[in-house]
């Protein structure tokens, strides 16, 4: 978990739960690299569904959606929807 999420002023407003979700996303980046999930622009991406986040964090659907929205608003992730029934593509943004 990047220390900057706790020390940088612009991230202090983020909830601890959203920081935990970000930590999970960050941890999964190595799996994405191993699977060679790299787009045409050279950005690593991952698939992480709301349901997977619910199972790992033991939160409800609405709360997980709020946490993803919080990370998006803080410009830490970018989510691209693929259509109904498909997992969104998630990019972690560089923040330091």
Short descriptors:
96 residues, 46% helix, three-stranded antiparallel sheet, mainly alpha, 3 strands
Explain how this protein is built.
The protein is mainly alpha-helical and 96 residues long. The chain is 46% helix and 10% strand. The protein contains four helices and three strands. A hairpin with an 8-residue loop joins strand 2 and strand 3. The longest helix is centred in the N-terminal third of the chain and has 19 residues. The relative contact order is 0.19.
Helix content: 40-55%
Average predicted local confidence, pLDDT: 91
Strand tally is: 3
Q: Give me the strand/helix succession.
A: HHEHHEE
Strand arrangement, largest sheet?
Answer: 1-3-2
Biggest sheet details: 3 strands, antiparallel
- Structural class, by secondary structure, is mainly alpha
Topology:
Layout: H1 4-7, H2 16-34, E1 46-47, H3 50-57, H4 61-73, E2 77-80, E3 89-92
Antiparallel strand pairs: 1-3, 2-3
Helix pairs in contact: 2-4
Entry summary:
By secondary structure, the chain is mainly alpha-helical. The chain has helices at 4-7, 16-34, 50-57, 61-73, and strands spanning 46-47, 77-80, 89-92. Helices cover 46% and strands 10% of the residues.
């Amino acid at each position: 978990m990047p220390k900057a999420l706790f020390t940088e002023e612009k991230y202090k407003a983020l909830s601890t739960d959203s920081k935990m979700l970000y930590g999970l996303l960050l941890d999964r980046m190595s799996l994405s690299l191993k699977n060679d999930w790299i787009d045409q622009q050279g950005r690593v991406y991952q698939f992480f569904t709301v349901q997977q986040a619910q199972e790992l964090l033991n939160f409800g659907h609405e709360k997980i959606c709020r946490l993803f929205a919080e990370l998006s608003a803080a410009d830490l992730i970018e989510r691209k929807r693929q259509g109904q029934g498909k997992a969104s593509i998630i990019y972690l943004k560089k923040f330091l």
